[in-house]
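Figure caption, in words: inputs first, then the predicted bound structure.
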Amino acid sequence: MQITKQDALLVIDVQNDFCPGGALAVADGDAVIDVIHRVASKFEHIVLTQDWHPAGHASFACAHPGKQPFEQVELSYGMQTLWPDHCIQGSKGAEFHPALHLPEAEIILRKGFSPHIDSYSAFFENDLVTSTGLADYLRDQNLTRVFLAGLAYDYCVGFSALDARRLGLQAVILRDACRAIDLDGSVAKIEAQFAQAGVALIESAALLG
Ligand code: VGL
Ligand code: ZN
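Bound structure (zinc ion present):
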C-alpha cells in the first residue's frame, strides 16, 4: 500500500499508564512502539494524542462512590465504563512512553480534559458532539486518509477510526501497531462496527514492502 501526501498517521495514547506497569496497563502495550517507529518514516504528517484527565474525572471509578473500575454508569451522554485513575494531567503516567521518539509529529492533541465528559476518540468527546479540532486540522491540510496505531485498539484507536469514517475520511488501522484492553467482548463489538463502517485493518508490513 502506497502512502501519499494526503495521508496522516495518528498515534493514539502511547502513554505510560497504558503500558506495562501503568495504572490502566494494556497487555504488551509497549510492543507497539517499535512497529510505530518502523512505519513513521513513511508519513509526512503525524499526529500524537494524549489522554489527559483532571483528577477526579467523571470516567474514574473514584468519582462514583460505591463503584469499582470496569463497571458502568449512566452519565448525561449515555453509558460510561469506569476506569482506574489514569493519565492525570502532569503525572508520570500521562507522559508518553519514554521509548516513543517521534520528533517530527506536527500536533500533540490532548483529550479527555473536560471534567464531566470522557473522550475516547481523537475527533469527538464521548457526547459525540464536542469537537477536538482534529477534523479541522486534517481538512485544512487536505488530509483525507488516516492510519491509526497505538492504545487501546478497542477503545481510543477504534473510536477514532469510527469517527474518521463518520467524517468521510478513509480509516486504516495498523493492527500489529495496536494492543487491546478486551473488556467484556469489546474487541468483537468494535470489529463488528469496523466492518459496518468500512474501517480497514492491515498489518504494518503492507506499508513497508
Ligand atoms: C483509553 C480507556 C480510558 C484508551 C483511554 O486510550 O484507549 N481507554 N481512557
Ligand atoms: Zn482515559
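Residues 7-208 form a domain with the Rossmann fold fold (CATH 3.40.50.850).
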